[in-house]
Specification:
This protein has 308 residues and is an alpha/beta fold. It is 38% helix and 27% strand.
Length: 308
């Protein structure tokens, strides 16, 4: 297990950013997925001991967040969302400095800095000052400084932020390459769903500081397996009301169709019976293909509606 959280809570005054968060994050590559403001960055900062806990507890690599934050930071690579570069330092100087801060000797840190800058594609720019780097290069140097001390766990906060399409693909390729070696666990926090689908084995979806769902990619795709695209001719409102009475969830679909989710154990006979009862004609009845985005949006909407 990489991370275990029990009622993990972080508050800023009256604002609760992470609300009684309980989860077990195993080794491998895990996507921490949520909309902006969901509490992803606050959760990561709490795990690193950069912000104090308001309640609960957590262990990272068997070290307690409250009592051993320094030990955790020495064993973790952290790539923050915001730029954290020091003007005046070259790329090689920046990464070497990060290595020394992690406890490496000067010579070892320099040698390792050259290695990770080559890995991240910055070998030709390593002697340039970091303030002259483009947005994509700044993301790469942040990844390099997170890797320099060969951590056991890598925390990536919005790693493709501000990058162009080619840069995004190259960054995701790097993350996949690191993950494929199997020696380092990765937690990737992002609101970009395709990044998670591309790189992660497990997904934890959060909203407003709470856990909504934790599962594998394939299992999440099957969350709304009983969903269908339905188009009818006739009294749509009456048809929708009848479906509601039969326990179906109905929402607007694309091209004047309805998205109908059957209750657990139900089959398409419910839709056929409803069409006969309301006198509408079925023009379309096909199973919906549920992408991770579909599941993500439905979970977020359901969570928001639950508090109304």
């Amino acid at each position: 297990m990489s991370v275990t959280l029990n009622d993990f809570t972080i508050s800023y005054g009256d604002l609760t950013a992470v609300d009684c968060f309980s989860a077990v994050l195993t080794s491998g590559t895990i996507g921490l997925l949520g909309p902006n403001g969901a509490g992803k960055s606050s959760l990561i900062k709490g795990l690193l001991g950069l912000v104090p806990l308001s309640g609960g507890s957590a262990t990272v690599l068997d070290m307690d967040v409250a009592t051993d934050p320094k030990g955790i930071r020495q064993n973790i690579g952290y790539m923050p969302e915001d730029d954290c570069l020091i003007p005046g330092l070259t790329g090689i100087g920046m990464v070497q400095y990060a290595g020394e801060l992690s406890g490496m000797g000067q010579i070892d840190a320099m040698q390792r800095a050259h290695e990770v800058l080559f890995l991240t594609g910055l070998e030709e720019a390593r002697y340039r000052n970091v303030e002259t780097y483009s947005a994509g290069m700044k993301q790469r140097i942040k990844l390099a400084q997170a890797l320099v001390h060969d951590p056991r766990l890598l925390l990536l906060d919005e790693p493709t932020s501000g990058m162009d399409p080619q840069g995004r693909q190259e960054m995701l390729d790097l993350i996949q390459n690191i993950s494929s070696h199997g020696t380092m666990s990765i937690i990737l926090a992002t609101h970009i769903l395709v990044d998670v689908e591309r790189t992660c084995e497990q997904v934890l979806i959060m909203n407003r500081g709470r856990v909504l769902r934790q599962d594998g990619i394939e299992e999440l795709h099957g969350t709304y397996g009983g969903a269908y695209q339905v188009r009818v001719e006739g009294d749509r409102e009456r048809f929708q009301a009848d479906l509601d009475s039969r326990g179906c969830k109905v929402s607007p679909g694309s091209r004047q169709s309805l998205e109908v989710t059957l209750p657990q154990g139900g089959d398409t006979d419910l839709i056929l019976e409803s069409s006969r009862a309301t006198g509408v004609q079925l023009r379309k009845l096909v199973s919906s293909v549920q992408s991770l985005e579909d599941v993500f949006m439905k979970l977020i909407v359901e969570d928001d509606e639950a508090d109304l």
